[in-house]
Amino acid sequence: MLYIHHVILIDIVIYITIYLLLRRTLYNKSVPKGNFIFACILIMLFCLYPAWGGDFFHYRDSFFSIKQNGYTNMEVPYQYIIKDIVDTYFQFRLIVWGFALLLFYYTQKLLPVPIVLCSVIFCLMFLPRFSYARVSLAMSMIYLGLSVAVYKKSSINLLIGLAILGVSYFFHKSALFGISVSIISFFMADILNKRTVFIFALLYPILMYIVPLALSEFMLMDFSDEVVYIGKGQMYLENDFTENYGLGKNIEEGLLRATLYGVLILYALLHIKSKYEYLPRAIKVFSTSAFLSVFIASVFAFDWGMNTYTVYNRFMYFAMIPSSVLLAYCLSNKVCLKFTKFVVILGAIAAFYALIYRFYGASSSPMLFNI
């Protein structure tokens, strides 16, 4: 019999193996092509069986519900894949996360970063989070669109990039946040400097005052005639998703947030040390996207008599891919090297702790892995 904690243990072994296969690139050494190909297979396998995340089982239930023409809140493209393309749940995951990983690979190819280095940083820091939520496909599409837009300075590239950004919205409604941040980053990246970063810091307390007022108005609105997604957004604010959090879970979330705030600090250091102006435009755009994602998400970090935990976390997750790109560039070009290494190590600790913590929780209350 296979239990959930057995599957999580396999995930941990895969995670460690990916590091061992690709670790040489972290020390500026070449990695054999066979190692990278095998690591890609393991990354896909990890995404097929992320039993440590609750969404894995929620999507399984939704899969069978859609097969039986039942209710689902999944977006139309996923419903089409389930109804007309695949027969099993794992075929569904193979298509969705397979495309998400493939799009991320092509995003890296369009950027001035070493692909293997960027891949191993992304896996060490963010793969567990990336592996279980379907928004990952929308995120990959967003950053592919952004990389196409900045790859060459041409109207055609810009139009293709914007088209990809637009399509991503149909794969997850929260993609609207990532789309907005990407567009803002595309146009703002070249004008940001030390002064504007300082202005952002001054704006934070003002936004902390304005956003609660806006959310209060949102809570008082009548959504009886509106679409289900708006009602669902209201539900997020009405429910307390953190009430059952213990010390272990708080440590898990705290480490992830500390990692992303480390990226925000790195972005500020690039300006303070006058390194930002010498970055390639693509890195400027992606680093600005990471910065804005964390900054805007942080406005929702506090409880104003309504729960904004889900909004905060979802917005933070949009910083994962651009953060990996920024860290890979800084590491390969020895920019703010010591602090960059610190952030990567912190991110790896956060991801590994999350897996160990979920394994401990699952093994304490063993449940069969029913698929």
Summarize the structure.
This protein has 371 residues and is mainly alpha-helical.
How would you characterize this protein structure?
The chain has helices at residues 4-22, 33-48, 54-67, 76-84, 89-109, 115-130, 135-151, 155-168, 175-188, 194-220, 228-238, 247-272, 281-298, 309-317, 320-332, 337-364. The protein has 371 residues and is mostly helical. The longest helix has 28 residues, at 337-364. The model is unreliable at 218-243 (pLDDT under 50).
What characteristics describe this protein?
single chain, 371 residues, mainly alpha, 16 helices, 73% helix
Topology:
Elements: H1 4-22, H2 33-48, H3 54-67, H4 76-84, H5 89-109, H6 115-130, H7 135-151, H8 155-168, H9 175-188, H10 194-220, H11 228-238, H12 247-272, H13 281-298, H14 309-317, H15 320-332, H16 337-364
| Helix and strand pattern | HHHHHHHHHHHHHHHH
Structural class: mainly alpha
Tell me the distance between the termini. 12 Å
Tell me the total number of β-strands: 0
Give the percentage of residues in beta strands: under 5%
Q: Estimate the global geometry from the Cα principal axes.
A: globular
Major sheet description: none
Q: What helical percentage do the residues reach? A: over 70%
Query: Which ranges are low-confidence, i.e. pLDDT below 50, for 5 or more consecutive residues?
Result: 218-243
Number of contiguous helices:
16
The chain-level mean pLDDT equals: 88
Tell me the Rg in angstroms.
20 Å
- Please, how many domains? 1
